Amino acid sequence: MSDLYELLDIPRDAGEDEVKRAYRRKAREHHPDAGGDEEAFKAVTHAYQVLSDPSKRARYDRFGDDGTTNGRAGGDPFGFGGAGFGGIDDVIDAFFGQSAGFRGGGGRRARREQPGRDVLVVVELTLEEVVTGVSREVEVDVPRACDTCEGSGSAGGGGPSTCGTCGGAGQVQRVVRTAFGQLATAAPCGACQGTGRTVTDPCRDCGGEGRRPTTRTLRVDVPAGLEDGDRIPVRGEGEAGRNGAPAGDLYVQVRVAAHELFERDGRDLAAEVSVPVTQAALGGTLTVPTVDGEEVEVPVPAGTQPGDVLTVRRAGLPVRGGGRRGDLHLIVRVEVPIGLDTEQRRLLEQFAEARGEDLSSRSGGRFSRLRDAFQR
Ligand SMILES: [Zn+2]
Ligand SMILES: [Zn+2]
């Protein structure tokens, strides 16, 4: 029975991060995809599962491993001993690229199937379309299964056969010289690109790949209430997979165009509205357009001040999946009249007089605290 801490090469008081880092390093080292020993890989994975879980780790510290899963010590397939493995990661990275070095369980099968990649397209919506939802055509330009050979890649329709170079394994053993000496490692087979299968009589239209660049127009239903950046998944409409693997998904990402009147804040809308000074003082009714293309009447209370907010309930946006609509907030701007004619001027002077406001006084401007203005 080997010690789990020794397996991961960490001290008994190692923190969570240290356990994770050690596992990543060890898993790469022993990963079967990288030519590692499968038993050793299972052993370090087991060590990680125990030591990364606080309650399991506590039990292990007290009672030891129950030993039901496995207890074999690290396989050390490269013969380097337990320490000083830093260079291996680099070698593996250089060979397979960062992502291929470690991909969790089941790597062999996943590599061979090569599912198609996901694809993202962006649609721009107006705010009005956010309210109603909309059906849109999008153009998608990705490889899809070749019609001529029905995705098999083979002209005769026989389908691909086992690769002669790697015998269908999808990888070949290579010996690499490193600073540590010779290192036996596995690399994807060049003859079949790691798929393990080759086409003997390639289809003329797709060159044996089984896929062709295809431009398609798809209709996508965009529901109401989406926000900028939201994505609608369309399963199976991404790139075709290789060798019969499933296609990737299409994601339609929403971009909401700026509106000339309304600002959006979640499901609420805000707009600035001009109110004549007389209406602000006396009160009245405003007629304003809504995002639905309708008009609503909004009462303006007497004594309305600049910056006051008039709220129209449920004239905002719907939320995705339904529910109560947001509100429309109208921020009041009070219009001071300009270009007065003689009569208007006389009336305002009378008004000032009735209010006891001395227009000629140079001390007429009463200071108020600036803070009050900012707090509005
Ligand atoms: Zn074809
Ligand atoms: Zn091959």
SSE layout and pairing:
Blueprint: H1 4-8, H2 16-30, H3 38-51, H4 54-63, H5 86-96, H6 98-101, H7 107-113, E1 119-125, H8 127-132, E2 134-145, E3 161-162, E4 171-178, E5 181-188, E6 197-198, E7 211-222, E8 231-234, E9 250-256, E10 263-265, E11 268-276, H9 277-282, E12 284-289, E13 295-300, E14 309-312, E15 328-335, H10 342-355, H11 370-375
Helix pairs in contact: 2-3
Description:
The protein has 376 residues and is α+β, with helices and mostly antiparallel strands. It has 3 domains: 102 residues, Helix Hairpins (Orthogonal Bundle), CATH 1.10.287; 100 residues, Urease metallochaperone UreE, N-terminal domain (HSP40/DNAj peptide-binding domain, Sandwich), CATH 2.60.260.20; 113 residues, Urease metallochaperone UreE, N-terminal domain (HSP40/DNAj peptide-binding domain, Sandwich). It is built from 11 helices and 15 strands. Helix 2 runs antiparallel to helix 3. About 12% of the residues have low confidence. Bound molecules: zinc ion (2 copies). One zinc ion binds next to loops.
